[in-house]
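Incident log, support desk, overnight shift.

02:14 A customer reports that sequence design results differ from what the structure should imply. Their input is reproduced verbatim below. On-call engineer (initials T.W.) acknowledged and began investigating.
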């Protein structure tokens, strides 16, 4: 098998939008903590799934660990327009982090409605357990370790690829930093025509997104003096020999160029007969696909066997692409990945920005040309530390940030659905020159952990919506 079949497999779902409107999906990761701020126990999370089953969700167990790992239900509104129409509550790398992956919708108001509906169920359960859901990007107290790892086969493999520069070997590996992080990601339909331009724009401007959305400065019970967006920098700590797979990649000229770059990654895992296998003897995924010599794979238990490449292995490769924005061939979407989880009531700001940029792609591309590619990379690294104090050649980025938000606003207004309202918190952050991380640090310094937890916990009243509002957004 050469490149043609994987190329066709990769590109076949990047079609035009549905009925003129893009499909939009969110993946919201949320730390669950006790009222003291520590990560909750696995038993509390497992009991959650029994609770969700009574609420009408279908429960799935992991075939490897036999733990309950997800609860899903059909979203009837999404099913009218999309093949995939399932709202899912699942677990991330760390079992104390929930992920809400909503079925795709065609507007942000409908997403807000279904997110609020699910969050009301979850907040009610965790309130009964004396626990809280945080609108925050990292576990604030409990340190990362193997102990917090959800024992899925995939996650157990991660330790094999990671050093011990931060986490002692007795506690796991640096990959276990991911057991405490919580991101705010979204998938948005993209056509093949716009796929590479959209990828370049979202990656180049990712530092601006981070300036607005950094929200993980407090972990291990104290303020991190270096980074305000630890969730993002942790990827580079986890896999320091794979930095070409994360952050801002090179600027791509075509989708062929993009795929060629992916094929130069070090191979990690592929799946055969519902079992993951580590590729042992190939330097790159390209070498694996060319198959000039037999490929040796190894199970988690250490059993070795010969494996042959398949066209659908391109999806396994893509799962280990950690760019700030990446193409997702499985769905035909572009995924924005760089943002920490946001404070309550502001969960959709990263999605709103991303959608607005894609709807105003020409203007966003013009903004991208304002700086060389390497400067955008520097902006991203500085944003992780300094948020609104980030500068270029000693000059403030505030005019660029204003232009960035205005481009996104204009993109949303083109859709005519009243979605620009979701950017209001970002204009307030720009006015105050404070990201959520800056607000969190200020509250923690003045009120301690108790005040900080109160600030970023979802409350029951957050989801008290009037019947008129519910009817209004359901009719959009």
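02:41 Re-run completed on a clean worker. Output:
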């Amino acid at each position: 098998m050469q490149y043609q079949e994987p190329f066709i497999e990769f590109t076949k779902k990047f079609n035009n939008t549905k009925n003129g409107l893009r499909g939009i999906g969110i993946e919201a990761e949320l730390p669950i903590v006790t009222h003291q701020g520590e990560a909750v126990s696995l038993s509390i999370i497992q009991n959650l799934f029994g609770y969700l089953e009574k609420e009408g969700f279908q429960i799935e167990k992991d075939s490897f660990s036999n733990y309950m790992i997800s609860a899903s239900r059909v979203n009837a509104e999404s099913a009218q327009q999309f093949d995939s129409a399932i709202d899912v509550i699942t677990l991330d790398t760390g079992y104390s982090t929930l992920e809400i992956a909503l079925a795709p919708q065609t507007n942000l108001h409908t997403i807000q409605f279904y997110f609020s509906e699910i969050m009301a169920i979850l907040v009610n359960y965790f309130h009964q357990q004396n626990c809280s859901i945080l609108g925050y990007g990292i576990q604030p107290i409990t340190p990362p370790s193997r102990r917090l790892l959800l024992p899925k086969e995939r996650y157990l493999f991660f330790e094999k690829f990671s050093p011990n520069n931060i986490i002692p070997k007795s506690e796991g590996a640096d990959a276990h930093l991911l057991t405490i992080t919580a991101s705010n990601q979204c998938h948005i339909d993209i056509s093949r025509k716009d796929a590479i331009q959209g990828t370049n724009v979202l990656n180049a401007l990712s530092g601006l997104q981070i300036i607005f959305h950094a929200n993980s400065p407090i972990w291990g019970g104290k303020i991190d003096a270096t980074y305000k967006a630890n969730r993002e920098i942790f990827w580079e700590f986890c896999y320091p020999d794979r930095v070409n797979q994360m952050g801002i990649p090179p600027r791509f000229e075509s989708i062929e160029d993009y795929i060629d770059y992916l094929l130069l990654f070090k191979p990690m895992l592929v799946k055969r007969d519902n079992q993951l296998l580590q590729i042992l003897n190939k330097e790159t995924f390209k070498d694996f696909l060319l198959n000039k010599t037999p490929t040796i794979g190894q199970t988690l238990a250490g059993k070795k066997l010969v494996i042959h490449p398949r066209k659908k292995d391109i999806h396994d490769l893509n799962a280990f692409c950690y760019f700030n924005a990446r193409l997702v061939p499985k769905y035909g979407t572009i995924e924005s990945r760089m943002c920490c989880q946001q404070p309550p009531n502001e969960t959709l700001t990263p999605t709103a920005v991303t959608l607005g940029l894609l709807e105003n792609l020409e203007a966003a591309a013009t903004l991208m040309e304002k700086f060389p590619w390497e400067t955008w990379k520097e902006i991203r690294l500085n944003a992780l530390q300094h948020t609104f104090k980030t500068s270029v050649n000693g000059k403030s980025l505030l005019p660029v940030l204003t232009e960035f938000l205005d481009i996104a606003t204009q993109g949303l207004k083109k859709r005519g659905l009243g979605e620009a309202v979701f950017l209001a918190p970002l204009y307030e952050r720009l006015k105050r020159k404070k990201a959520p991380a800056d607000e969190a640090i200020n509250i923690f310094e003045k009120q301690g952990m108790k005040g900080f937890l109160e600030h970023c916990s979802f409350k029951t009243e957050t989801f008290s919506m009037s019947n008129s509002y519910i009817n209004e957004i359901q009719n959009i």
